[in-house]
Design brief:
The structure holds two protein chains of two kinds. Chain A has one domain. Helix content of chain A is 76%, strand content 3%. Chain A has eleven helices and two strands, in the order ααααββααααααα. By secondary structure, chain B is an all-alpha fold. Chain B has one domain. In chain B, 77% of the residues lie in helices and 1% in strands. Chain B is globular and about 55 Å long. Classes of the chains: A mainly alpha, B mainly alpha. Chains A and B meet through α4, α9 and α11 of A and α5, α12 and α14 of B.
Chain lengths: 280, 311
């Protein structure tokens, strides 16, 4: 239960990018989990080369991933969105991208599990008889901070508000003197950067292999859809639900069932209420 | 009618050539590789009936393929059913699953449908992994029945796959040229408009998902005898999902010929890559080729040919 709640902060961080890109921009970026794993490996390399803390190196890498995301969006825009063929072929494009990143990683790093150790990962403390490991607590706190930052970014800054606007009325935004494509490029970059930072958190929680991205497709999209497509508060609540449900499932039925939780929630929500808990 | 008869004749000729090939002894690896390529012809053709004709992208191909394979495992383990029964049963179970996702299209379109099919694949894989009777996560070995009708068992399976590939291509060709195909094309272009024009969209979609599921299941049914050891990670491999989608996309999705071209080209390239480079490299090739085609040649090879002829 506590482990599930602690995981939920991390899950929120994982899903922020999808909430932004899929929820608000309506771009079916199914390659998002691949960027998560790419971020994890970036942190792994930095840790191995300079002994950097994964979270610090995650922060260093955010501009790189922002640029990468911007480039990916430009390709997507030029090839699909402008031609008005985004839904079907765009989906296939991102699916191919997912495979390219995953296979490139396994060709470079092999298929062994990789983990990053830092000075706090082995320590823990107890509150009222419940042991809390720093390994889970730190990513949870960082994840919550990321969520809060994203909330502030979307509600307080010019670009954040413009992203909210582009999801509602593109024409009105253009009349206000802002270029929707630029705004979307920025939003896509921010989403990918968020995924890479979450990847740095991931590798400090658990060992990572290149094919781990497949596990996170379900989690990311389950949380985003359950949370109501782009609502940051909804993302947080949905992460808590998924985190607790997964840890309960794994306690009572064994860990092999825990992966089915996210996909199960996803299927049920899609079949019953596609608008999610907090959908408009 | 004349062209359909012609296509049938060509199909029968190919099956005959397949049998002749199986009787003539060449390097046994040829049959192994040929089986995989033909299996992809069936898979790509089946995927295209839903994805290409109706415009619903199915990411859950492994689920249907594995349904066929595991139905076969179940029947082999319990009653030692013969191969024709396995093919039919595998197809029916996967077809039923297809009918199920067909009803899903009532609520889910576009991206949401695709994600739901992916979720379905993972759910089914989890169930199979926890089902000890069919081997659970460790997998189970299957013993081939003695005495195939001719040749060795692998050459026999190769011939069976030739027949299945021809049959599925003929089915796809028939659907494409019938009223069903035109109805599916109409709902692919605009579901609302098709509905308004009186096209029975739900019935057509259910038909497409069921036939597509059935053929994917049939493709999976001989799989246990082919590999003789079935485990969830190989039966539910994501390779099937990406290949099922890449092959029609590369060949061209609007015609029955597209998936065949894509499957033969990409399947052969992969088999060569597995032997000469590595099995990871072959997936990398698929990913790169898929992205390149979808960006640069969205109509596939058939589209390129058409453009060169100046249409």
């Amino acid at each position: 239960m506590v482990a599930g709640l602690l995981l939920s902060g991390f899950y929120a961080a994982v899903s922020l990018g999808v909430s932004l890109i899929f929820g608000l921009l309506d771009i079916a970026n199914i390659a998002q989990p691949a960027f998560l794993i790419l971020g994890a490996y970036a942190a792994y390399v930095m840790n191995g080369a300079f002994g950097l803390d994964p979270i610090v190196s995650g922060l260093i890498f955010t501009p790189v991933f922002f640029a990468l995301g911007a480039v990916v969006y430009r390709i997507y825009y030029e090839s699909f969105e402008r031609r008005g063929a985004e839904s079907l072929r765009g989906l296939v494009f991102f699916f191919g991208l997912l495979f390219i990143i995953e296979v490139s990683l396994s060709m470079t790093f092999g298929v062994d599990y990789r983990l990053v150790q830092s000075d706090y990962t082995t320590r823990s403390f107890e509150i009222a008889g419940v042991g809390i490991a720093f390994r889970y607590l730190v990513p949870c706190v960082v994840g919550l901070a990321m969520t809060f930052t994203m909330y502030l970014f979307l509600s307080r800054t010019f670009y954040g508000r413009a992203i909210m606007a582009v999801s509602q009325d593109r024409m009105a935004l253009r009349l206000m003197g802002a270029n929707p494509v630029t705004i979307k490029t920025i939003a896509f970059g921010v989403g990918i950067a968020a995924a890479s930072l979450a990847g740095a958190l991931l590798i400090s929680i658990a060992p990572v292999i290149p094919s781990a991205d497949r596990d996170y497709i379900g989690r990311m999209f389950a949380i985003t859809v359950l949370g109501g497509m782009g609502s940051i508060g909804g993302t947080l609540v949905a992460s808590a639900i998924l985190g607790v449900a997964e840890s309960l499932m794994s306690t009572f039925f064994g860990p092999s069932w825990s992966l089915a939780v996210s996909f199960g929630i996803l299927l049920i929500v899609l079949a019953v209420r596609p608008a999610g808990l907090f959908g408009r | 009618m004349g062209r359909t008869a012609g296509a049938l004749l060509i199909g029968i000729a190919i099956v005959g050539a397949g049998i002749a090939l199986a009787v003539v002894k060449v390097n046994p690896y040829f049959y192994f590789a040929g089986y995989v390529i033909l299996q992809y012809v069936v898979i790509a053709t089946a995927w295209n009936i839903l994805g290409g004709y109706a415009g619903y992208v199915n990411f859950g191909t492994p689920a249907f393929f594995a349904m066929g394979a595991y139905t076969a495992v179940l029947l082999i383990k319990s009653v030692k059913a013969p191969l024709p029964v396995l093919l039919l049963a595998g197809g029916l179970v996967a077809g039923l699953l297809g009918l199920g996702i067909g009803y899903l299209t009532l609520r889910l379109r576009g991206t949401f449908f695709s994600i739901a099919t992916l979720a379905l694949a993972v759910m089914l894989q989890t169930v199979v992994m926890n089902w000890e009777y069919v081997g659970g996560s460790r997998g189970t070995s299957v013993i081939r029945p003695p005495g195939p009708p001719f040749g060795s068992y692998v050459t026999f399976l190769f011939t069976v796959m030739v027949g299945l590939a021809v049959a599925s291509v003929l089915i796809a060709r028939f659907i494409e040229r019938s009223r069903i195909g035109r109805g599916l094309a109409a709902l692919r272009d605009s579901e609302e408009a098709a509905e308004c024009m009186g096209v029975p969209t739900l019935r057509l979609k259910l038909f497409a998902t069921t036939v597509s599921g059935f053929l994917l299941g049939v493709a999976g049914a001989p799989f246990p005898y082919y590999v003789t050891f079935v485990e969830p990670n190989s039966a539910f491999a994501l390779d099937y999902a990406v290949n099922a989608l890449a092959m029609p996309m590369i060949g061209g999705t609007t015609s029955w010929l597209g998936p065949v071209i894509g499957a033969v080209l990409l399947g052969t390239a992969q088999q060569i890559a597995i032997v000469t480079i590595s099995s990871e490299m072959n997936l990398f090739i698929v990913g790169v080729v898929l992205v390149l085609f979808v960006v640069l040649a969205p109509e596939g090879i058939l589209g390129l040919v058409r453009r060169m002829r100046g249409h």
